[in-house]
Amino acid sequence: MKLQREQLEQQLGQVKQAVSEALDIARQLGASDAECSISKSSGISVGTRMGEVETVEFNQDGALGITVYRDHQKGSASTTDLSTEAIRAAVNKACEIARHTSADPYNGLAPKELMAFEYPELELCHPGDQSPEYAIEQALRCERHALTLDKRIINSDGAHYGSHSGFKVYGNSHGFIGGYLQSRQNLSCVLIAEQDGKMQRDMSYTVARRTDDLLAAEQVAEQAAEETLARLGARKIDTAKVPVIFRADVASSLFGHMIAAISGGNLYRKSSFLLDALGETILPEWLTITEDPHLVGGLASTPFDNEGVATRKQDIIKAGVLQTYLLTSYAARKLDRTPTGHAGGIHNWRMTHSDKSLQQLCQQMGKGLLVTELMGQGVNLVNGDYSRGAAGFWVENGEIQYPVEEITIAGNLKDMLRNIVAIGNDTDTRHALHTGSVLLDELRIAGV
């Protein structure tokens, strides 16, 4: 892999030079400001189904995007050709587009003093074996093992293995040009099981920067089989109002709605149920959420955001109180605030949690619903109304009794967030937001 990394580093240097060239051309053509970025990735994706290779794809993508500003008019263009002629043509096109757009006083670069002119090495690139032979072996091992685990597993919806590596470069006319290497490996398996003429489907997956940090193919298969078989015999339940646990792998979606509500676009459009919530208590007082963008090897780590703004460790929520909005430079100017380093998303959110396992959370809940799957998009970010299809398990006396399906859970996100009872220690780190299972005091369940 050393050779592959050296090749990536060489390409990174060449792309940085292309970005510098594009910015110089933009200045020569009279742009008051300009910014340029490219995220380049290459690798392999393999899919198998029922023990046979179904797809083998080699991917290589990444275009140089250039944006120019002329007195708050904005124009953008892109090119996959990094020759001087192609770059000049793209910059010319961006300048031409800018001349025909309306001026927006909030357009422009993030402030120069926020640029990440110095940034740490976060060890985000660990190229994996991208040979077809290795990728096929991983997918087939996973799926074939899964199909031997239980006679009720009657079909496979496929196993997929992917390995990609590349880099990200961003530069602007403040004199900032930054870049870093990155990689990602993943393996997943989807199974179908049948019992009493009724079928259920579920899956498992693993993702990491390093190949060595992935779960073994057999572990993924066994997890997929366990999840799928557990759903057999699912029932409907009566309509009720009971405590609910969002299992760790779906709990991140609950906080995802909060993220959307405190993001700049929804705030300046006044389409957020957390409008004017800065400095207000929106979560329980025992709950703190800390962002750590510089977590070495983290899946959501980055030294700077998509506008070159330096990222930093900070509390997003402290003792339940909202400490910051999530603002791009455009949103920040709209709201008369400062960009927060979130152009492109969040970075390794970690939250305080109890020392209780999922089983102990069920015991604490006593009687209620454990949600393991959410469906639909019934969320109103303006007023926080929440209603989504769900599946999972019915819990009584602190123990799982049977799987349930075809139900709807409903509440209001403001109340749901404030009334979180506990978070388990079963933290799922496969997302940008790291959370364990979340116990809520009560939600409405629509069943039979």
UniProtKB/TrEMBL annotation:
Record domain Metalloprotease TldD/E C-terminal: where: 240-447
Source organism, top-level taxon: Bacteria
Gene Ontology molecular function, alphabetical: metallopeptidase activity
Entry keyword set: Hydrolase, Metalloprotease, Protease
Gene3D superfamilies reported for this sequence: PmbA/TldD superfamily
Tagged with keyword Hydrolase: yes
SUPFAM superfamilies tied to this protein: Putative modulator of DNA gyrase, PmbA/TldD
Residues covered by the Metalloprotease TldD/E central domain: 126-232
One GO CC annotation: cytosol
KW Protease (keyword) present: yes
Residue ranges occupied by any Metalloprotease TldD/E N-terminal domain in the UniProt entry: 34-98
GO BP term, pick one: proteolysis
Stated family: Belongs to the peptidase U62 family.
Name listed for the protein in its UniProt record: Metalloprotease PmbA
